Write a sequence for this structure.
């Protein structure tokens, strides 16, 4: 039987905020006790549902869970504590405030009831003032619980929207990764008895490192390794822009090329290339980044390599006789000062010599033995790679050896890239 006194459809009296306790279930095997409690609750504006047994009460709860339950402790069949435990299990998604009605006054018994899942208790006989106070306490708890539930729902909705945005960004980044990988379409490229190898390993989806090469023919090859300041999307966008400035297919846009007679192109001096790139970078007020670079021009007939170093790590020469040396004097990065200048230097390679250009992602990577790889570590790994592989696999083997010595669980903290020229020793060459 349902007895209710409700001022409005939503359980409010004029000027009140929505009630947290609208529907109350009274469970007691005493009809008289149910009538007393129901009358008192109805006067407080609650809709009251009555049940004579715990089993009947559970059926009512399955149909429509109440906001609050007042249940007798001792009843035939299922006790109030047992009823509370089953109710909690059956309506877990809807929190019900549970008050035990008992004649027990012992502290230990009261504690047992609370440990069994009850929220509060009332001692028989129940006074109207105490009942209203317990209901008010239940209202406060339920209101906080429902406010928390609403906030969690909003949070879940926001997290769902953020997950959707993340998935969209991740798809975009994966596509950007494919685009960036297309900037280095070849891992190796032969020029007669000589060969170039290229390596590009971003620390994330995309990175700010770039390597590449181009040739107008006549045994002349321009090759470079560069590293844009910063990480992520802005750095990757600048590398894409720089790739267009050093295009291997569009000579008219390539700042390292100059048109000569009869529509033939030749390679400009390395220092001129650095100056041209610096002029473009410093003239664009919308660019805050700068980049480091090694740019070289190799004559594959004579073995002469002219280079310019723009703040990039020193090129490493690996001689065929097993010796190694670093070249260059540092130089200024590109894009920082409009009046910067750079000095060229030259090295002559002999048959079997290698020249390695690399980013600081190698030398500044934490190692499992402590510290960073450093220049000495790079020489050690480069020497081992040179002895352990055949043509075309050198950089792959170098990176594998490098990854084996990285600090465990760190992954790449910076982009790693390299370009290697092996002069005059490629087997099976024409």
């Amino acid at each position: 039987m349902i007895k209710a006194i409700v001022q409005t459809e939503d359980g409010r009296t004029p000027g009140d905020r929505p009630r947290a306790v609208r529907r109350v279930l009274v469970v007691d095997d005493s009809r008289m006790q149910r009538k007393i409690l129901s009358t008192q609750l109805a006067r407080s504006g609650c809709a009251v549902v009555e049940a004579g047994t715990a089993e009947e009460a559970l059926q009512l709860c399955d149909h429509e869970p109440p906001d609050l339950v007042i249940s007798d402790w001792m009843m035939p069949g299922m006790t109030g504590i047992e009823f509370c435990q089953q109710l909690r299990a059956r309506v877990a998604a809807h929190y019900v405030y549970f008050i035990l009605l008992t004649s027990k006054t012992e502290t230990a018994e009261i504690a047992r009831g609370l440990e069994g899942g009850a929220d509060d208790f009332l001692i028989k006989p129940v006074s109207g003032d105490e009942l209203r106070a317990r209901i008010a306490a239940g209202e406060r708890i339920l209101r906080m619980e429902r406010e928390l539930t609403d906030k969690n729902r909003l949070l879940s909705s926001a997290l769902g929207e953020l997950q959707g945005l993340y998935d969209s960004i991740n798809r975009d980044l994966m596509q950007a990764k494919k685009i960036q990988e297309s900037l280095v379409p070849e891992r190796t490229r032969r020029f007669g008895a000589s060969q170039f190898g290229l390596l590009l390993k971003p620390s994330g989806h995309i990175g700010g490192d770039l390597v590449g090469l181009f040739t107008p023919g006549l045994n002349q090859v321009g090759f470079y390794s560069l590293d844009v300041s910063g990480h992520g999307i802005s750095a990757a966008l600048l590398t894409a822009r720089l790739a267009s400035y050093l295009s291997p297919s569009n000579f008219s846009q390539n700042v390292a090329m100059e048109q000569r007679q009869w529509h033939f192109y030749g390679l400009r001096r390395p220092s001129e290339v650095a100056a041209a790139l610096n002029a473009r970078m410093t003239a664009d007020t919308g660019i805050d980044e700068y980049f480091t670079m090694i740019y070289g021009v190799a004559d594959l007939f004579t073995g002469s390599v002219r280079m310019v170093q723009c703040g990039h790590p020193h090129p490493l020469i690996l001689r065929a006789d097993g010796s190694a040396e670093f070249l260059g004097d540092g130089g200024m990065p590109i894009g920082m000062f409009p009046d910067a200048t750079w000095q060229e230097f030259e090295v002559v390679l002999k048959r079997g010599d290698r020249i390695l250009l690399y980013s600081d992602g190698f030398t500044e990577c934490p190692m499992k033995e402590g510290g960073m790889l450093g220049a000495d570590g790079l020489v050690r790994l480069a020497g081992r790679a040179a002895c352990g592989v055949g043509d075309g696999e050198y950089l792959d083997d170098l990176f594998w050896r490098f990854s084996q010595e990285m600090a465990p669980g760190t992954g790449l903290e910076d982009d790693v890239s390299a370009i290697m020229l092996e002069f005059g020793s490629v087997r099976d060459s024409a």
Observations:
- The longest strand covers residues 209-217.
- DSSP finds ten helices and 19 strands in the chain.
